[in-house]
TrEMBL record:
<dbReference type="InterPro" id="IPR017438">
    <property type="entry name" value="ATP-NAD_kinase_N"/>
</dbReference>
<keyword id="KW-0547">Nucleotide-binding</keyword>
<keyword id="KW-0346">Stress response</keyword>
<feature type="domain" description="DAGKc">
    <location>
        <begin position="34"/>
        <end position="187"/>
    </location>
</feature>
<dbReference type="InterPro" id="IPR001206">
    <property type="entry name" value="Diacylglycerol_kinase_cat_dom"/>
</dbReference>
<keyword id="KW-0418">Kinase</keyword>
<dbReference type="GO" id="GO:0007200">
    <property type="term" value="P:phospholipase C-activating G protein-coupled receptor signaling pathway"/>
</dbReference>
<feature type="compositionally biased region" description="Acidic residues">
    <location>
        <begin position="454"/>
        <end position="467"/>
    </location>
</feature>
<keyword id="KW-0808">Transferase</keyword>
<feature type="region of interest" description="Disordered">
    <location>
        <begin position="441"/>
        <end position="491"/>
    </location>
</feature>
<dbReference type="GO" id="GO:0005524">
    <property type="term" value="F:ATP binding"/>
</dbReference>
<dbReference type="InterPro" id="IPR016064">
    <property type="entry name" value="NAD/diacylglycerol_kinase_sf"/>
</dbReference>
<dbReference type="Pfam" id="PF00609">
    <property type="entry name" value="DAGK_acc"/>
</dbReference>
<dbReference type="GO" id="GO:0004143">
    <property type="term" value="F:ATP-dependent diacylglycerol kinase activity"/>
</dbReference>
<protein>
    <recommendedName>
        <fullName>Diacylglycerol kinase</fullName>
        <ecNumber>2.7.1.107</ecNumber>
    </recommendedName>
</protein>
<dbReference type="GO" id="GO:0016020">
    <property type="term" value="C:membrane"/>
</dbReference>
<keyword id="KW-0611">Plant defense</keyword>
Length: 491
């Protein structure tokens, strides 16, 4: 990894951070080599079956054990708050070494998409003048975040050589910004029974209750509860979230059966069949289709809301930020020149302040993504998205943010449930040479996406109710708002 390492038992000095920088000791240490790529490592030891614990041991053997944290024992917000506070204190005393460490610092997080999103949210919350970029180790079931930025989607090796190889890639990785998307959800307090509209254990870690809403908000009234949170990859609702909810519920009941990544993916596919996602037109009542559950509005230009037309057969809708969904599939694809001209649709970028809104009829429709130019039903690109749920034949639906699903109660007569998604900030990711995510600021990206052949996508883009009738077989605490930010920003 470097000429300075002459002993296999010595730490990897290029990545090493001394204790006094970490706030673990008062005695100033000087290393044999100034680290070119100092790293703070966060590992979810419960991810990847037993592999998370093995990876934790390997990193602690190769680095200073105090710069490697088990997320089951240490909360990342407290860790980073302590470290950056200590760095600022040392810099104020004239410690130039501390300044070098801070300027070169990179973060590594090993876990599923939920774990990675947790750390991204923490870094976003800290609002650092120069936040460190983040590399993600794929240790989950979908691993959409790592895959988007070139880190793969299979569990990596946990031996010394595999970790050294990964650290070498982290050192060479380029920085890329990613949009942060925040969610405000408002729902009525139940008139009887528990005061919580959704059981706390059923909500994602990134959704939290809070009371402060703008005085001009029409839902700022007694009897409503407000939640807020956020995501980096996607927000979805409908049948895809229902299958995910079934998977997570089963894993919660029988965790011993979910220690192998391939077995987890096989179980997920099996649940897609048993939940009726492949035969949706037979088992899924049309009253639970997206258009029957909610009115959807989008904002293409700031301050101007417009109603989004959703075909009646759409059973799942995804608001997508990254070009990876369900373990590496790209629901948006790359619109052709004709689509760009006729519908103002662009290629997906992770830092353009736009969400790609895509619909699916069933799992067979989703299998189109396995073809070279396959994609879902492209509905819109938007700066903000608002779902307004009204009373329907169903008393609930399913939602999911970055792999974390929940069962969402729907309103009774006269009540409203509103979910609103808005852009709020960016963080820096680390991207390897295999990165599939694209930046709007990269000139080579525009050259590579401006000359695509026209694809035959009429079956995906057009309304398909007639076809549906003929074919009866279907396919951590995070994201805290600044105290001076009013919720009216999201209305």
């Amino acid at each position: 990894m470097g000429d300075s390492i002459s002993n296999a038992n010595e730490p990897l000095w290029e990545f090493y951070i001394p204790n006094y920088i970490l706030g673990q000791g008062s005695e100033i240490e000087r290393l044999p080599v100034s680290p070119n790529c100092p790293v703070i490592v966060f590992i979810n030891s419960k991810s990847g079956g037993q592999l998370g614990g093995d990876l934790l041991l390997t990193y602690r053997a190769l680095l200073n054990k105090n710069q490697v944290f088990d997320l089951g024992e240490h909360e990342p917000d407290k860790v980073l708050h302590t470290i950056f506070g200590n760095l600022e204190r040392l810099k104020s005393t004239g410690d130039t070494y501390a300044a070098e460490i801070q300027n070169r610092l990179r973060l590594i997080v090993a876990g599923g998409d939920g774990t990675a999103g947790w750390l991204l949210g923490v870094v976003c919350d800290l609002k650092l003048a120069c936040p460190p970029p983040i590399a993600t180790v794929p240790f989950g079931t979908g691993n959409n975040l790592p895959f988007s930025f070139g880190w793969g989607k299979k569990n990596p090796g946990t031996d010394h050589q595999s970790v050294k190889s990964f650290l070498g890639q982290v050192m060479k990785a380029k920085e890329m910004k990613i949009d942060s998307w925040h969610v405000v959800m408002r729902m009525p307090t139940p008139k009887s029974g528990s005061c919580d509209p959704v059981a706390p254990l059923d909500l994602p870690h990134s959704l939290h209750s809070f009371q402060r809403v703008a005085t001009t908000d029409s839902l700022n009234m007694e009897g409503y509860q407000t939640y807020r949170g956020g995501f980096w990859n996607y927000f979805s609702m409908g049948m895809d979230a229902q299958v995910s909810y079934a998977f997570h519920s089963e894993r919660k009941l029988h965790p011993e059966k979910f220690k192998n990544q391939l077995a987890n993916q096989a179980t997920y596919a099996k649940l897609g069949c048993t939940q009726g996602w492949f035969f949706a037109s037979l088992v899924h009542h049309h009253s639970r289709n997206i258009a029957q559950l909610a009115e959807v509005k989008i904002m293409r230009k700031l301050g101007h809301w417009e109603k989004l037309h959703i075909p009646r057969s759409i059973r799942s809708i995804i608001c997508l930020n990254l070009p990876s969904f369900s373990g590496g599939l790209n629901p948006w694809g790359t619109p052709t020149l004709r689509k760009k001209q006729d519908r103002y649709l662009t290629a997906p970028f992770v830092d353009d302040g736009l969400l790609e809104v895509v619909g699916f009829r069933n799992a067979w429709h989703g299998l189109v993504l396995l073809t070279p130019k396959g994609h879902g039903t492209r509905l819109a690109q938007a700066k903000q998205v608002r779902f307004m749920f009204h009373k329907s034949a169903s008393d609930h639906t399913f939602m999911r943010m970055d792999g974390e699903p929940w069962k969402q109660p729907l309103p009774d007569d006269g009540d409203k449930v509103v979910v609103e998604i808005s852009h709020l900030g960016q963080v820096k990711m680390l991207a390897s040479h295999n990165c599939i995510a694209k930046s709007i600021h990269d000139p080579s990206t525009h050259l590579s996406t401006s000359h695509h052949d026209e694809d035959d996508d009429s079956s995906s883009e057009d309304s398909d109710e007639d076809t549906e009738e003929r074919r009866k077989f279907g396919a951590a605490d995070t994201f805290k708002f600044p105290q001076d930010l009013e919720a009216s920003h999201f209305s």
